Amino acid sequence: LGRANGLAGLFFAAVLASGVAAPGAALAGTWSATGSLVTPRDSHTATLLNNGQVLVAKGGNQTPEDSSYLASSELYDPVSGTWSNIVSALNTPRAGHTATLLDNGKVLVVGGQNSTTYLVTSELYNPATGIWSYALGALATARARHTATLLNDGRVLVMGGKRSNSAYQTTAEYYDPPSQTWGGIVPPVNTREGHTATLLADGRVLVAGGINASGYVAGAECYHVLFTRWDPAGSLGAGRQAHTATRLANGQVLVAGGENYDAGGALASALLYDPGSNTWIPTGSLNTARHSHTA
Question: What percentage of residues in the chain have a pLDDT greater than 90?
């Protein structure tokens, strides 16, 4: 056993000395190159499947404003570090959509846009068969740059976004996987896109920031699933959009970065939302201002 460990140590020392990294052998706290996507794309989605693979779906392959939208999707295998095309293509090319892993293991893709057309359709990817199919029913109204949040009861809350190049979305609705139907709920107080929607530990959904026809949104709201109502959730202080919101282990939500061109562009500031006191607390700022990032 000691000899085997010694040989393994010599092997990894040789790998490091040569500058070549085997799949899965990256040192902690470092970045290493892995396999490239088959197709260049932006404004796509990436969803972790139950089998450990990552599904990347749709998007554009030039700029978000370009008319080149993709119907293809790919799978990343972390064991081999490689990407492969899914043979079955999505039925409608789109970008600015959402992708949500359902409790049954399927992935629900909702809305988005194809050139100037905003979409009401949704599609389901079945990892067991590798096939995309249209979900039954349709959104009550088209939307892109919305949010989709998986609720504790298995439904998906879809809210906000835009329904055309010049009109912001005023409604929220939810998708019920067993019946494959869409149903409307009480509209939120603020219309918005570029916001975040975070499931809290108590089952409520915190919606924060965004932008609408009046400018950057500083307000936040909580959707109470049980009572189907929206409650005020304080203010971020200054409006922002294209930020991230991450629920931490202690139940608080970290909002980081974003943009507000009225305040100079990309933001480095960050705040914590405390559900118990329904208040926002400034916390340490990012070292580098950024927006449209991930967390």
Answer: 75
Instruction: Look at residue 226 and tell me whether its pLDDT is greater than 70.
Output: yes
Q: At 15, phi and psi to the nearest 5?
A: -60, -45
> What is the 8-class DSSP label of residue 162?
B
As a whole number of angstroms, the distance between CA 119 and CA 58 comes to 14
Token pair in block for residue 46: 């990436």
Whether the Cβ atoms of residue 183 and residue 205 lie closer than 8 Å to each other: no
Query: Virtual CA dihedral for 166, 294, 81, 34, nearest 10 degrees?
Result: 100
Nearest to 112 by CA among 129, 127, 131, 90: 90
Give DSSP secondary structure letters for 237-251.
Answer: SS--BS-EEEE-TTS
Question: What is d(CA 187, CA 199) in angstroms, rounded to the nearest whole number?
Answer: 18
What confidence tens digit (pLDDT) does each residue in 161-215 have?
Answer: 999 998 999 899 999 999 989 998 889 988 999 999 999 999 999 999 999 999 9
Type of residue found at 278: N
